[in-house]
Write a sequence for this structure.
């Protein structure tokens, strides 16, 4: 769960970097990068690992959540008031929404690439630009990335804890880094979408 | 009187235990499996004995009334555990530890037993350490010790302020290991309600399953009581509120003599009573007296806040009366002095039943940080209970009932006067005389359970190897069970008005007022009348809602209180009989001109072992003379 | 103080429970929470009604018997104390106090506020010990332990097994409890020898009896009356991975 999650954490910055090429006025660099990602053999292997990680992360997440619900068949009448890390309480829900977005995302891009959905796999640049012109899509996009931020904030710290990587030297910096990461990644994606939506 | 055979082995004091072990009968491994032993209680002695006997290969059945064996009240011991390791090179030895205990007990304990307790103390520390008990350590990795309870050497091993819990978790872990191996079967939430005797030997118990109310019969070749003390007879004490004497008392009524019941230690530093529904008094470690100064105002009924009372209007009465030891006098002396001041009208607070324990001077001298390092957790605990910050104003303290030196009479083998019935730990009388030394109870109770009983019980069981598994269908089981059920029904059918606690509280008040820190003939006689009155009222006016076929905490409580009425009568009788002052037993008639305890070694150097003679018949006194061959009986002086 | 109590009443494990409302008129702020319940029970017995059943024993916060879920907090709203140490001075005149039993599948309700916590014992029986027979121990000072390690082991060992961590956790996970036990032994050289078998056995038993999983929410640490830290859980994970 944590390992798969950590792997997913490393993929996001890569995706973000490629997305920044969308800000260029000509489609060349982005489409080249997308093409490279779609064809380079090492990346293809990584892609399989990535999908494996998503599968593991999601199915384990659901399985553990079901176990957790079963562990308390009768709940409390007064809801819990314990001081906890707030976002950790909703991981299954933020996770589910992010997953839903991911599936939508696949319909828009990945399924085109593998030929399941009609479209031109060599010009995702235009696909993106067209999508961001639809305000409803932007709202959904921004909302999902906010929730992804919530998810990441707890995920980052939590993965360290679950992997037993808890050390008095780096404990104090894990949470600030998590916060930084959880803000910068969604903010980057959001920046691109807002720019394309409002200023192009 | 011929019934008290103490079975002390021959030979010089230091060789008795070695000689005993060398000559005691043994049981072969094959036979051990066939022999069953019941252990009641899972504190340090009970859980230790269960695991040690399990390791030997006996079939052990262990009982406790709590939901888990790890909750027994040994858990609450704070200070530490003594051992004669002499790790500090300060001249300690087995003999010195023995001597300190004998002297601390005011020469009313049996020499051979005390020496043995001191002798096995080192093994106890070794064993706990191996079990992973996190005792405090020095920077080099060796074990640390501290000085405790007014002795001149540093021999107390400790785990901050919760040595009891850490040791208990140690014995609990060794018990768990035997449960996993199948050598011990654990019965939690069971209360022993009677002892079953067959042909005069202890052969089993009748227990109540506290969850279902079912009355159960359990048979064994021997029964071990590790049921702790009876300090809750005062209602308010430092003990767990469910601690009780019922198992020991039932055994007593079946023939086990009860020794020195009136020897009860009163702990001087407890949080005073705060409200009328108070259920217990919390102990504040006596180590606080190392830096805290005890005082009351010089004027009677002075209600000014403590901090506003100027220095010259304060009476540091311990320093005044005992210049040599000052605030560090032994527990009994400190307790009586507090009571004396409060009775004379100098007590503080709304009730007038409290004295100040002031850290102002120590904080001034050593700095707040040093005091915080030493006692931070105790100050926090005090603040949690009272809301008072002791860094700013003095703690209020008052004595409370704490430890019972008295208990079932046992011989050197820890066997009671019933063959096959053993009593270990606080439930027996054997090692602390008339007053227990600080940090000596964890030591004695662990030694009894781990190292002494598992050796001595073989001597009895070696003769039992031909006795087949005992059937619980024997008439003795049926009869005893019937008696238990009758008693329960009798309690339930009273259908009066008040709950058991309200009677317990009244009994406790009588005991505290007339048979507490200070006793006199007149008061004790009055107590007997008063106890009888409340007892009669109890049997007329008790109410237990619900029935016995379910979890019923009121019924549990009522059973325990009903036994306490009977024990209280014996306790007062014993106090009345002992016409001397010694240790925790202070009779006003017997004191020196300056108010100190006056022992009478000529007439009272004996253990008073009481035999139950039957319902409403007076107890029969048997005396075990105490012979001191290795120490000289001295007067304790702390001036 | 006048208080309204809403207390969970349930006759036995099978019965369906419900909240009963009790009005208390004369509560002193100097009472402890359980003494307030004692007062209520005294009243109930005098009215020949079934008193509220609850576990309690030492009444000084060390035995771990007591445990109630009070106004949304295990052991009540004050941090780092048990229910028995909770003073009524933390409540205000006119307050309504909700009192519920611990809720978790491995902690079924027995009666009213009493739950069965034997699942904790089962986990400890599975491996919470060092295998040394009585009499076999080496001289105590022949085992040297770094002071820091020893102090850390102590900080883990102070767990009183009350179950507040499970009660607080949204997943009813027992990780804080189990990790405290594992840590105590893992940090000491005496405990290293069996470390692998121990952690596997205890974790396996923990899952078997039906506790939930740790999602690092931290409610356990926030509610632990003995302030056991989350670092123990990370240590448990480490020990667990090392065990394979």
């Amino acid at each position: 769960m944590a390992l798969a999650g950590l792997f997913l954490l490393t993929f996001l910055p890569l995706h973000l970097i490629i997305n920044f090429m969308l800000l260029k006025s000509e489609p060349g660099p982005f489409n080249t990068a997308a093409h490279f990602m779609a064809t380079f053999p090492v990346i293809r292997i990584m892609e399989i690992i990535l999908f494996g990680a998503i599968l593991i992360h999601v199915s384990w997440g659901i399985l553990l959540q079901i176990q957790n619900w079963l562990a308390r068949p009768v709940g409390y009448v007064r809801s819990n008031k314990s001081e906890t890390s707030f976002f950790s309480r909703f991981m299954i829900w933020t996770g589910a929404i992010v997953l839903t977005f991911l599936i939508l995302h696949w319909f828009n891009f990945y399924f085109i690439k593998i030929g399941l959905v009609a479209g031109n796999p060599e010009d995702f640049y235009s696909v993106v630009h067209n999508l961001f012109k639809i305000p409803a899509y932007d709202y959904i996009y921004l909302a999902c990335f906010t929730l992804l931020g919530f998810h990441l904030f707890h995920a980052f710290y939590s993965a360290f804890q679950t992997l037993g990587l808890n050390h008095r030297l780096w404990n104090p910096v894990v949470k600030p880094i998590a916060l930084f990461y959880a803000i910068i990644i969604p903010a980057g994606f959001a920046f691109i979408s807002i720019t394309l939506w409002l200023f192009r | 009187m011929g019934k008290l055979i103490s079975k002390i082995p021959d030979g010089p004091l230091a060789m008795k235990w070695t000689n005993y072990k060398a000559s005691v009968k043994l049981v072969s491994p094959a036979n051990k499996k066939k022999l069953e032993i019941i252990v009641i209680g899972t504190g340090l002695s009970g859980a230790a004995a269960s695991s040690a006997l399990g390791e030997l290969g006996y079939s052990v059945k262990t009982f406790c009334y709590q939901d888990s064996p790890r909750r027994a009240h040994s858990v609450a011991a704070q200070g530490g555990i003594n051992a004669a390791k002499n790790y500090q090179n300060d001249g300690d030895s087995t003999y010195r530890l023995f001597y300190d205990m004998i002297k601390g007990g005011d020469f009313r304990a049996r020499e051979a037993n005390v020496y043995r307790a001191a002798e096995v103390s080192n093994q106890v520390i070794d064993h706990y350490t191996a079990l992973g008990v996190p005792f405090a350590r020095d920077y080099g990795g060796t074990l640390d010790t501290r000085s405790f309870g007014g002795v001149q050497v540093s021999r107390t091993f400790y785990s901050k302020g919760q040595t009891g819990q850490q040791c208990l978790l140690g014995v609990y872990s060794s018990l768990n290991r035997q449960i996993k191996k199948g050598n011990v079967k654990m019965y939690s939430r069971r209360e022993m309600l009677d002892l079953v005797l067959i042909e005069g030997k202890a052969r089993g118990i009748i227990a109540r399953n506290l969850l279902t109310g079912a009355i159960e019969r359990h048979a064994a070749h021997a029964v071990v009581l590790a049921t702790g003390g009876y300090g809750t007879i005062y209602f308010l004490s430092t003990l767990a509120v469910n601690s009780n004497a019922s198992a020991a008392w039932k055994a007593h009524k079946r023939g086990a003599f009860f020794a020195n019941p009136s020897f009860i230690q009163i702990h001087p530093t407890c949080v005073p009573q705060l409200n009328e529904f108070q259920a217990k008094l919390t102990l504040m470690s006596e180590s606080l007296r190392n830096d805290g100064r005890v005082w009351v105002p010089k004027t009677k009924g002075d209600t000014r806040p403590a901090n506003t009372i100027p220095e010259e209007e304060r009476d540091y009465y311990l320093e005044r009366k005992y210049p040599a030891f000052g605030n560090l006098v032994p527990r009994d002396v400190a307790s009586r002095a507090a009571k004396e001041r409060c009775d004379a009208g100098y007590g503080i607070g709304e009730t007038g039943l409290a004295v100040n324990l002031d850290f102002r001077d120590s904080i001034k001298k050593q700095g707040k940080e040093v005091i915080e390092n030493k006692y931070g957790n105790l100050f926090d605990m005090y603040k949690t209970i009272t809301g008072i910050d002791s860094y700013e104003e003095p703690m209020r303290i008052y004595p409370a009932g704490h430890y019972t030196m008295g208990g079932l009479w046992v011989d050197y083998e820890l066997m009671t006067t019933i063959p096959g019935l053993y009593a270990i730990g606080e439930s027996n009388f054997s090692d602390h005389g008339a007053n227990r030394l600080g940090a000596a109870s964890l030591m004695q109770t662990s030694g009894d359970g781990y190292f002494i009983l598992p050796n001595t019980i073989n001597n009895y069981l070696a003769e039992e190897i031909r006795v087949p598994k005992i059937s619980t269908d024997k008439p003795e089981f049926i009869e005893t069970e019937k008696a238990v059920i009758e008693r329960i029904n009798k309690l339930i059918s009273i259908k009066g008005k008040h709950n058991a606690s309200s009677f317990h509280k009244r009994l406790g008040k009588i005991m505290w007022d007339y048979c507490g820190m200070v006793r006199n003939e007149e008061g004790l006689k009055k107590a007997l009348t008063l106890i009888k009155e409340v007892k009669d009222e109890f049997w007329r006016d008790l109410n237990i809602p619900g029935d016995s076929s379910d979890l019923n905490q009121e019924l549990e409580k009522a059973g325990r209180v009903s036994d306490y009425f009977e024990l209280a009568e014996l306790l007062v009788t014993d106090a009345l009989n002992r016409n001397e002052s010694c240790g925790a037993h202070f009779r006003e008639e017997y004191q020196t001109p300056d108010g100190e305890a006056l022992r009478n070694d000529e007439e009272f150097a004996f253990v008073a072992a009481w035999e139950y003679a039957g319902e409403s018949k007076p107890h029969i006194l048997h005396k075990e003379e105490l012979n001191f061959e290795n120490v000289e009986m001295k007067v304790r002086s702390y001036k | 103080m006048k208080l309204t109590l809403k207390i969970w009443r349930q006759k036995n494990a099978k019965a369906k429970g419900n909240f009963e409302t009790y009005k208390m008129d004369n509560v002193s702020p100097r009472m402890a929470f359980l003494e307030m319940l004692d007062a209520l029970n005294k009243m109930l017995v005098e009215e020949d009604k079934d008193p509220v059943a609850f576990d309690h024993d030492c009444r000084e916060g060390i035995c771990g018997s007591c445990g109630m879920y009070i106004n949304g907090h295990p052991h009540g709203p004050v941090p780092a104390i048990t229910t028995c140490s909770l003073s009524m001075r933390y409540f205000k005149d006119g307050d309504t106090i909700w009192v519920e039993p611990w809720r978790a599948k491995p902690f079924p309700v027995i009666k009213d506020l009493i739950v069965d916590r034997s699942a904790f014992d089962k986990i400890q029986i599975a491996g919470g010990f060092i295998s040394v027979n009585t009499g076999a121990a080496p001289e105590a000072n022949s085992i040297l332990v770094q002071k820091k390690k020893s102090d850390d082991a102590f900080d883990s060992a102070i767990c009183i097994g009350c179950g507040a961590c499970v009660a607080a956790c949204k997943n009813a996970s027992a990780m804080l409890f189990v990790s405290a036990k594992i840590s105590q032994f893992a940090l000491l050289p005496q405990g290293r020898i069996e470390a692998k078998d121990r952690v596997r056995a205890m974790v396996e038993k923990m899952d078997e009896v039906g506790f939930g999983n740790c999602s690092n929410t931290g409610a356990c640490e926030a509610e632990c009356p003995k302030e056991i830290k989350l670092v123990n859980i990370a240590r448990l994970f480490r020990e667990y991975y090392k065990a394979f």
About this structure: Chain C touches chain B through 79 residues (CB under 8 Å). The longest helix of chain C spans residues 33-46. Chain C has nine helices and seven strands. The two ends of chain C are 58 Å apart (CA to CA).
